[in-house]
Amino acid sequence: MACDASTGRxxxxxxxxxxxxxLLRGLLAGGAALxxxxxxxxxxxxxxxxxxxxxxxxxxxxxMFVAPYPLWVATVVWRDGRAVHFDGAKDFFKYLFELxxxxxxxxxxxxxxxxVTDYYNTLRIDAQAAxxxxxxxxxxxxGHELVPHDSEADAxxxxxxxxxxxxxxxxxxxxxxxxxxxxxxxQ
Length: 187
Description:
Oligomer: single chain
Radius of gyration: 17 Å
Strand order of the largest sheet: 4-3-5-6
Strand content: 15-25%
Largest sheet: 4 strands, antiparallel
Structural class: alpha+beta
Shape: globular
């Protein structure tokens, strides 16, 4: 156990960025590979290749610089190649639900890729395939967040470890949820 200086709460220690299940899967796979005489490769999630935010990229929703928060980055890539970065999944969803406000000349059909950063492995994953935990004791750059995970197992583990309220899929996130999170409401 270790005390998180930002929250004052105790959490279990794990190697940085690695979920317990992911670590165990990797150890089991590595042991099996060694027994079979094969080379061992690191286990990976389902990352998506998206451009990284530059030092001057700002979130179109809140105006914060995005690059200082690499563990929370979310990205939308448009058909013309333009990438828009966010300092968390919450602002990413606000943007998607209010495209007419932020991108009046574009539609969702013009989006070619969307990614969020997985909490445990810190890789960017497909936003539509992610599992999101709301109501946890882990805060992002803008407070309460939708905390993305690559698998349901990791999301459920995070939910239990960090006092989360519920797990949602992409399609279950409502237009009112991001603003409710700003107010500390999780329903």
